[in-house]
From TrEMBL, chains A, B:
Domain of life: Bacteria
Name used for this protein in its record: methylmalonyl-CoA epimerase
Pfam families with a match to the protein in the record: Glyoxalase_4
Keyword Transport found: no
InterPro entries reported for this sequence: Glyas_Bleomycin-R_OHBP_Dase, MeMalonyl-CoA_epimerase, MMCE/EMCE_epimerase, VOC_core
Domain VOC: 4-134
Recorded GO MF terms: metal ion binding; methylmalonyl-CoA epimerase activity
Segments forming a coiled coil: none
PANTHER family attached to this UniProt entry: METHYLMALONYL-COA EPIMERASE, METHYLMALONYL-COA EPIMERASE, MITOCHONDRIAL
The keyword Metal-binding is annotated on this UniProt entry: yes
Lineage: Bacteria, Pseudomonadati, Pseudomonadota, Alphaproteobacteria, Rhodobacterales
Entries under Gene3D superfamilies matching the protein: 2,3-Dihydroxybiphenyl 1,2-Dioxygenase, domain 1
EC number, UniProt record: 5.1.99.1
């Protein structure tokens, strides 16, 4: 069911510093910062040869990233995203197997403009997993 | 400098259950469990089309994973591994930029039989980063 690892998202306490570090110290292909007001985040995409890293920073105090950074002041890996071909079929299989989908189990439009769902970390080894239909 | 994301490593509280979940519920290509006594872990590799997931479980009480699971009983993302062409050149560039390399900065032979280094999480947005020479 799951396909490629679409991205790993890292919440960071200083977006400019983190982007500069990936660009300069780690020598990666780092894009410009962009606001995602619908998701309450400011993001920087890092393109690796086989996948992407997303640096996440709260856009405002209501951002879903605020609580994570309060608990993890240095930042940390926030979630990982697996691609699926059919997000409704994926959801139904997960629910049938007893896994919890966050929210009301209805896919939302994610930061890449594609349907996404998030799975409950406690059901997946403490990892917040995003599924994105590609 | 950094190339592909070689793998994401997830520490899990129940290796068999986690492997079964990735195989059945998530429908991924999950390999057999294998002991890595030199690293104190029992691992399962999951092959995705573009990268790998490593499930990590402590092989004994001295395992470096024990403390992580004590702090994160549900499990969690333990580290991520970026590939580099030349690990000594990578190390020297990191040290010159003020980043801390764990241990004595001498590459060790990692779980894949290749030279690896780990970078200090506090210098990298709270993420434990492994560099592997490929």
């Amino acid at each position: 069911m799951i396909g490629r690892l679409n991205h790993v998202a890292i919440a960071v306490p200083d977006l400019e510093a983190a982007a500069a570090q990936y660009r300069t110290t780690l020598g990666a292909d780092v894009g410009p910062a962009q606001d995602e007001p619908d998701h309450g985040v400011r993001v920087v995409f890092i393109t690796l040869p086989n996948t992407k890293i997303e640096l996440l920073y709260p856009l405002n105090d209501a951002s879903p990233i605020m609580g994570f950074l309060a608990k993890n002041p240095s930042g940390g890996i926030h979630h990982m995203c697996y691609e699926v071909d059919d997000i409704l079929a994926a959801r139904d299989r997960l629910l049938a197997d007893g896994a919890r989908v966050l929210g009301d189990s209805t896919p939302k439009i994610g930061a890449h403009g594609k349907p996404v769902l998030f799975l409950h970390p406690k059901d997946f080894n403490g990892c917040l997993i995003e599924l994105e239909q590609v």
